[in-house]
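Human: I wish I could look at a protein chain and see how it folds. This is the protein in question:
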Amino acid sequence: MKWGTAYGAKDVNILYAMVARNLTDYFQFTCFTDDTSGIRKEVNCLPLPPLGCEIPADVPGKWPKVALWSKNLYGLEGVALFIDLDSVIVGNIDSYFEHGDPSDVITARNWLNKLSKSAQTSVFRFPIGGHSYMLENLQADPANVSRKFQYEQNYVTHNIKGGVKFWPEPWTRHFRVHCMGAWPLRYLRPPILPKSAKIITFPGLPGPADAMHGKWTETSEARTPGQHLRWVWQKFISGQKWRKHISRYLQKPDWLEKHWRE
């Protein structure tokens, strides 16, 4: 799904290319979007499915994704694998369609709070039209439901009938957690590519386009460890905010450029 200006056609085109390189069987790649300009012709572009309700402005999370649970999703049928645009496919993903039962809703386990057994919906599989009550229940009481769960993935965790299932842990990895590691490691080595990983997700910052150049954001500079620590020190002695910048450092991961491309 692509709405607004956070992601562009390039992100869609790269994700399509990564799927094409890493999925053996025939597939249909669909992008729900409010702007189709620049998207390659192989992508099946459809309008954003209507959520059918208003989410209060003070509620965080990506609630438009709940529209994917619609009973009729523009006539699409079968089992679908949803992949966030800030994901990098680094291995064959056939197994994402072979794992479990076709009726299962399968997600990554939330890496930041494993004890809660909550879902992380950067990469999830679902039977199209199989859980239409998810959208209907939100539409019946959008303010209370969204405020109760705050994030769309929390809503999915606690409301899928029969419960969500999880991918085998090594398949879907979090860039900051599993590749960058704890902040002291970020000064000693570039982010690693975890063994057996198939998809690396990039929740929050940095995104793939910046991380591949060793930058935290588009406006950041790529620095050596020493240069970055001196930059943080300058912020400290000048009275600026500096603590958060200690951990916001990474070296260029050579493997990322190999995979995140058309």
Q: What stands out?
A: DSSP finds ten helices and nine strands in the chain. The first strand starts at residue 30 and ends at 32. The domain at 9-167 is CATH 3.90.550.10 (Spore Coat Polysaccharide Biosynthesis Protein SpsA; Chain A).
